[in-house]
């Protein structure tokens, strides 16, 4: 009798081990022993947890789509970012692209993508020079920022407030600005790439949207890291 019990125990253990190894974690295992005959193993399906919805692989936030521009023969760089519906391209040249949203020129939200030739010594020196003269007027401040290297350049991503006297302030009012400045080598030339998003400081909805857009900026498919928003 003891030998038969051991055999039944081993048989049940082998059955359980086989089910675990086969990945059947969502199954219930039941054993039943009768006076004679081997141990019976019954397998029943049990309701598992609902599968978690995977995030989109392309990193584009819900309700937005990827917008890509090429900055021309003199600056052969592809820049992309996510944008929601409602933006329209207001002006464009090979090296300058402007998007706007709103009903009045005085308070339109603006996104600018640009490229200019740089005459500094390195991608990092391009960025350092830009930082020196940005957010420099009274009432302006950088709220958060991040700098670092890219495969072919150096970046500065930021979130700040432009004071009313800044040339890029909207309607001479405090203006939110999110963006990135990149010193970049393209076909042996050193260029400065800019991505800027601006809205009135009072527009909290635009601020939340820009915080979703900035982390999606890419340069030649390389992500430009965004700062931590405070």
Task: Describe the structure in your own words.
- This protein is of the alpha+beta class and 230 residues long.
- The protein folds into 2 domains: 44 residues, no CATH class; 160 residues, Mog1/PsbP, alpha/beta/alpha sandwich (Protein Transport Mog1p, Chain A).
- Helices cover 18% and strands 41% of the residues.
- The chain has 3 helices and 13 strands; from the N terminus they run αβββββββαββββαββ.
- The strands form 3 sheets. The chain has a 7-stranded antiparallel sheet.
- The radius of gyration is 29 Å and the shape is globular.
- The termini are far apart.
- This is Lipoprotein.
Could you give the topology of this structure?
Layout: H1 2-21, E1 27-32, E2 40-45, E3 64-70, E4 78-84, E5 88-93, E6 96-101, E7 109-117, H2 123-133, E8 141-150, E9 153-162, E10 175-186, E11 189-200, H3 204-213, E12 218-219, E13 222-223
Antiparallel strand pairs: 1-2, 3-4, 4-12, 5-6, 6-7, 7-11, 8-9, 9-10, 10-11, 12-13
Instruction: Name the CATH class of the largest domain.
Output: Alpha Beta
Helix content estimate: 10-25%
Number of strands: 13
Main pleated sheet: 7 strands, antiparallel
Q: Would you identify the CATH architecture of the largest domain? A: 3-Layer(aba) Sandwich
Q: In one word, what is the shape? A: globular
């Amino acid at each position: 009798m003891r030998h038969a019990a051991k055999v039944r125990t081993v048989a049940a253990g082998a059955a359980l081990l086989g089910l675990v190894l086969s990945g059947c974690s969502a199954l219930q295992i039941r054993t039943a022993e009768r006076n004679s005959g081997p141990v019976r193993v019954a397998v029943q399906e049990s309701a598992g947890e609902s599968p978690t919805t995977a995030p989109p692989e392309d990193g584009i936030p819900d309700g937005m789509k990827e917008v890509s521009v090429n900055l021309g023969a003199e600056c052969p760089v592809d820049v992309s970012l996510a944008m929601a519906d409602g933006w329209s391209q207001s002006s464009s040249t090979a090296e300058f692209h402007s998007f706007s949203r709103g009903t009045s020129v005085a308070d339109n939200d603006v996104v600018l993508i640009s490229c200019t030739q740089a005459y500094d010594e390195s991608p990092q020196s391009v960025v350092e020079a830009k930082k020196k003269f940005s957010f420099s007027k009274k009432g302006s401040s950088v709220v958060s920022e991040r700098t670092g290297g890219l495969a072919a350049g150096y970046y500065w991503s930021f979130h700040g407030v432009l004071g009313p006297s800044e040339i890029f302030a909207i309607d001479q009012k405090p203006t939110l600005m999110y963006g990135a400045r990149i010193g970049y080598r393209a076909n042996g030339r050193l260029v400065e790439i800019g991505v800027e998003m601006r809205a009135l400081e009072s527009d909290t909805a635009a601020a939340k949207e820009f915080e979703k857009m900035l982390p999606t900026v890419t340069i030649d498919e390389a992500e430009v890291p965004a700062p931590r928003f405070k």
